[in-house]
Specification:
It is an enzyme of class 6 (ligase). One of its GO terms (molecular function) is ATP binding. One of its GO terms (cellular component) is cytoplasm. This protein is α+β, with helices and mostly antiparallel strands and about 425 residues long. The chain folds into four domains: about 170 residues, Alpha-Beta Plaits (2-Layer Sandwich), CATH 3.30.70; about 90 residues, Glycinamide Ribonucleotide Synthetase, Chain A, domain 4 (Alpha-Beta Complex), CATH 3.90.600; about 110 residues, OB fold (Dihydrolipoamide Acetyltransferase, E2P), CATH 2.40.50.1010; about 40 residues, no CATH class. About 20% of the residues lie in helices and about 35% in strands. It contains eight helices and 24 strands. The strands form four sheets. Strands 1, 2, 3, 4, 5, 6, 7, 8, 9, 10 and 11 form an eleven-stranded mixed β-sheet that branches. It has a five-stranded mixed beta barrel with strand order 13-15-16-18-17. A three-stranded antiparallel β-sheet has the order 20-21-22, with no helix packed on it. Strand 4 and strand 5 form a beta hairpin. The two termini are about 40 Å apart.
Length: about 425
């Protein structure tokens, strides 16, 4: 039986994943498989931080047993198969009690939702939640006769909770989240950087640290119960990383949970649609149709021809050195751009330069007799400064481009949860 939860946190405190850690800690039932952390549409305005929903499957388990966490020194296990389920009403009462204890009550924008379901849902509801802003009413209609649910306040969280149960798991990564409620004490940034170097040693991990921008990405920016989170594709490596961190640094934590996630999968990306809709995320190919320009704040823009219309590509200031890539493009370059679309602008997450345009300039020709560059004396009039011989035609010279064809991505400091880092492209078979 699945318990799905969303919208228990605020911009500044709590984390809905902590609800799942408490369910895993307090349930007297078995856990089936890994709990799931499912990121949804990164573009909607009323998300808290990462727009992630959670679910966990509990009941009586059988088969292979794996470690999915450790709380207060005790391992938490999950089984591979479910053989019997508790009653939905019992689980709703259990989950509601935990949500009521921990959700952020001093924020009017925190509106928890709980869904209890025997089944997973069709992937269409997940795909919609990656691209659209779905209403609570439409989710209530969807859940009728499918699952039990509870709304706290407006109950906006039932949207994410429902969508998490439609995740199709075509691509899967993992994240180990370490906890201390309500939040960990102050940790010096230099210590955070040293800790973030540990997972960076493992090829199976991603988005750990940004050396150039001095950013330890495994640590959250806000005061939440999460001390750090390490993302990767091998749960066994995450366990080893946790032990290495604990053995080398004094961290007074409660413990950790490992989640299956859709982070780093590009699940939000739709390829080459006929139309681009606001709030959607896309990969589109086209021809650059302008030179780049900069607006106040250090935001870079350039135009691209896509199908029968022209769109803007944007690299905003937080993308740091990635802006140099946009600044190096010229009209005629063929590119594939990835990002979220809003009001005619694709906000870039990464870009692939498929073919560079060739650019030329006219220069005074070299005098063949003297080997000296001539000087322009007017239109179609070039003269050698030594022998005074005149030439009519300029020399056409190709400008050397300071960029190469290939894939470029924003730095770790600006990377979205869902965006696939280039290091995972091979793992997922993406060219």
């Amino acid at each position: 039986m699945y318990i799905a939860v969303d919208d228990t946190d605020s911009q500044n405190e709590m984390c809905t994943t902590y609800i799942i850690s408490q369910i895993a800690r307090k349930t007297h039932y078995d856990i089936i498989g890994y709990p799931e952390l499912v990121r949804l549409n990164p573009n909607i305005s009323h998300k808290t931080r990462g727009n992630g929903a959670l679910n966990i499957n509990i009941g009586t388990g059988a088969g292979k047993k794996i470690i999915i966490g450790r709380i207060n020194g005790n391992n938490i296990y999950a089984y591979e198969k479910l053989i019997s389920e508790p009653e939905p009403e019992e689980l709703m009462n259990f989950a509601s009690g935990i949500v009521e204890d921990f959700y952020v009550k001093n924020s009017e924008n925190t509106n928890p939702g709980i869904v209890i379901s025997k089944i997973r849902f069709d992937s269409q509801i997940y795909e919609r939640a990656l691209q659209e802003d779905i209403s609570v009413a439409s989710i209530e209609a969807f859940l009728e006769k499918r699952a039990a649910y509870k709304k706290i306040r407006t109950g906006h969280g039932i949207i994410g909770a429902t969508a998490s149960l439609g995740w199709n798991k075509k691509r899967v990564t993992y994240e180990l989240l370490d906890y201390k409620y309500p939040h960990y004490g102050i940790m010096d940034k230099s210590i955070k950087m040293e800790i973030a170097k540990i997972p960076e040693k493992y090829d199976s991990t991603f988005n750990n640290i940004d050396y150039k921008n001095d950013y330890p990405a495994i640590f959250p920016k806000f005061k939440t119960p999460v001390i750090f989170g390490v993302r990767g594709i091998k749960p066994c490596d995450l366990l080893g990383i946790y032990d290495e961190i604990k053995n080398n640094f004094e961290i007074n934590d409660e413990g950790f949970i490992i989640y299956e996630t859709n982070q780093g999968t590009d699940d939000h990306i739709i390829y080459d649609p006929e139309f681009l809709s606001d709030l959607g995320s896309y990969s589109v190919s086209g021809i650059i149709s302008s030179y780049p320009y900069i607006i106040q704040g250090g935001h870079y823009f350039i135009k691209m021809k896509y199908r029968d219309y022209e769109i803007n590509l944007a690299a905003f200031e937080p993308t740091k050195e990635f802006r140099k890539i946009v600044n190096a493009l010229i009209p005629g370059d063929l590119v594939r751009a990835y990002g979220s679309f809003d009001n005619g602008t694709l906000k870039l997450e990464k870009i692939k330069i498929l073919k560079l345009s060739r650019e030329y300039i006219k220069e005074p020709p070299i005098c063949p007799d003297c080997g000296i560059k001539t000087r322009s004396k007017g239109k179609m009039d070039y003269r050698c400064p030594r022998c005074k011989k005149r030439y009519k035609n300029p020399e056409i010279v190709e400008i050397k481009r300071n960029i190469s064809e290939g894939f470029y991505e924003v730095p770790v400091i600006a990377r979205r949860h869902l965006s696939m880092p280039l290091k995972l492209a091979g793992h997922f078979g993406v060219v």
